[in-house]
Amino acid sequence: MINSCSSDKELYEIYEKGHSKYSDQEYTIRCKLAAAYRLMAYFKWDELIYNHLTARIPGTEHILLNPFGMRFDEITASSLVCVDLDGKVVDPGNTTHGFNYTGYVIHGAIHKSRPDVLATVHTHSPPGVAVASYKDGLLLTNQTACTLGEVTYHDYEGISTDKDEQERIIKSLGDTSNVLILRNHGLLTCGDDVAAAFARIFTLTKACEIQVQTLSMVGGDQSKITPISQEIQDKVANTHKMFSRVGYGKKEFKAFYNLMLQLDPSFKN
């Protein structure tokens, strides 16, 4: 997803404002995150009440995530739970559901170690889990996959309830990657904004869909797939990085946000 007009003024303006409980900045982030949850349901990347998207409130050590008991298509700005980086609830939102501890284990670790990361997305979409379970991981055999740049991997350790795993997740992600494939588990993307993290999960999921279909078409025989040289892989990644350097994903997410406004603006409540 190349964003060649990322400096457009409108991309940096507040989406929503005027909520009685939250500052304009926090309300904007809550609306964007709630819209992202609704989009996950729209694309059928959700899994009942599981998986997580998070967003840090800038200037704080507080992150927002979904109440554990609501479907993604039910999430609203004010239902999001606010927790600190130690997993303590700061604001329960307008429900009594609490939050899923595994979401804190994975996402809290990343927010603690990577101050450049303000948003994360984690999914168990079927094509994503399929590629995560594939021994060779993500194949850079199509343009969509090549645009993702650095992709890192984390070995499966079971359901993420062990705080000791946090250090290993951090090490697996590294200091610069924004794409982590959790082997046998699912996908995770990061960004300096909800828009960036969502744009990456959209691209990563699409790359996984293409790979699953391609391998099915050739009966799993990778020799029948036209390869892309390392030189061209690097060229694609660098070109995409250059065009996306500022405001990655903002135009795309604004379009998605407008779609959610048209379909059901209740996510702003």
Total strands: the figure is: 8
Overall CATH architecture: 3-Layer(aba) Sandwich
From the structure provided, what is the oligomeric state, counting identical versus distinct chains? single chain
The number of helical elements comes to: 8
Identify the CATH class. Answer: Alpha Beta
User: What strand line-up does the widest sheet have?
Assistant: 4-3-2-1-5-8-7-6
Which band does the percent of strand residues land in? Answer: 5-15%
| Overall pLDDT score | 90
CATH superfamily: Class II aldolase/adducin N-terminal domain
How far apart the termini lie comes to 30 Å
The number of domains: 1
Please state the structural category: alpha+beta
Query: H/E series, N to C?
Result: HEEEEHEHHEHEEHHH
GO molecular function, one term: actin filament binding
Organism: Polysphondylium violaceum
Protein name: Class II aldolase/adducin N-terminal domain-containing protein
Pfam family, one: Aldolase_II
Care to describe what's here?
It comes from Polysphondylium violaceum. Pfam families: Aldolase_II. InterPro entries: Aldolase-II_Adducin_sf (IPR051017), Aldolase_II/adducin_N (IPR001303), Aldolase_II/adducin_N_sf (IPR036409). This protein has about 270 residues and is an alpha+beta fold. The chain has a single domain (about 10-265), classed as Class II aldolase/adducin N-terminal domain (L-fuculose-1-phosphate Aldolase), CATH 3.40.225.10. The protein is built from eight helices and eight strands, in the order αββββαβααβαββααα. It has helices at about 25-40, 100-115, 125-135, 145, 165-175, 195-215, 230-245, 250-265; strands at about 50-55, 60-65, 80-85, 90, 120-125, 150-155, 180, 185-190. The protein has an eight-stranded mixed β-sheet, sandwiched between helices. α5 links the parallel β6 (about 150-155) and β7 (about 180). α2 (about 100-115) crosses α5 (about 165-175) and α3 crosses α6. Residues about 1-10 have low confidence and may be disordered.
